[in-house]
Amino acid sequence: MKERTRKIINQSSGFSSLIKKQVCVIKDGIVCTVSFPNRFRRVLAKIAVGHSCYANDVLLDLDKAEVGFDFLPNLKNEEIEAFNDCPEVTIMPELGSRSIGSHVALFGSDPTPYYLWDVIQEGRYRYLAFVDANGNDSVRIVVDEFLYAVVNFH
């Protein structure tokens, strides 16, 4: 943790105690939780709406958001690898959207297009906005390679 961040947290006893409640150190490692999961899910859903709107030119309904998230210490390597995989494009994005121009790519001689991660700041923040095989919009978000979230809109 950066010194500036540590100083800010330590200045507020209420904020400091709230953060300490979120992270528990147990015998086998660290377990991370969120005290207000519904508020947290709502914030992630709003961020996902913005990413989807930007990438796919689609404005989504927050009430149809299904949000899942977890933290790095709680995830297995296989789960992280599956999360990081670029999904295959089964339904092409709308012509003229950013996804069609910069978020879809072909790899090698494979003619199958794949959605790409949009890396905002390497190691800090990235997201992947895509349309799944059923035509549902989805957004994956990774913060600090620590928080992994997926928001599906049905």
Provide an overview of this structure.
The protein is of the alpha+beta class. It folds into two domains: 1-33, no CATH class; 35-153, no CATH class. The protein is 34% helix and 30% strand. It has a five-stranded antiparallel β-sheet, covered by helices on one side. The protein is globular and about 55 Å long. It starts with a helix and ends with a strand. The mean pLDDT is 80.
Give me the secondary-structure topology:
Blueprint: H1 3-11, H2 13-22, E1 23-26, E2 29-32, H3 37-56, E3 65-71, H4 77-84, H5 98-102, E4 104-106, E5 113-115, E6 118-121, E7 125-131, E8 137-143, E9 147-153
Antiparallel strand pairs: 1-2, 3-9, 4-5, 6-7, 7-8, 8-9
Q: Estimate nothing, just give the exact number of structural domains.
A: 2
Strand order of the largest sheet: 3-9-8-7-6
User: Can you count the helices?
Assistant: 5
Determine the mean pLDDT.
Answer: 80
Spans with pLDDT under 50 lasting ≥5 residues? none
Distance between the termini: 37 Å
Largest sheet: 5 strands, antiparallel
Indicate the structural class.
Answer: alpha+beta
β-strand percent reads 25-35%
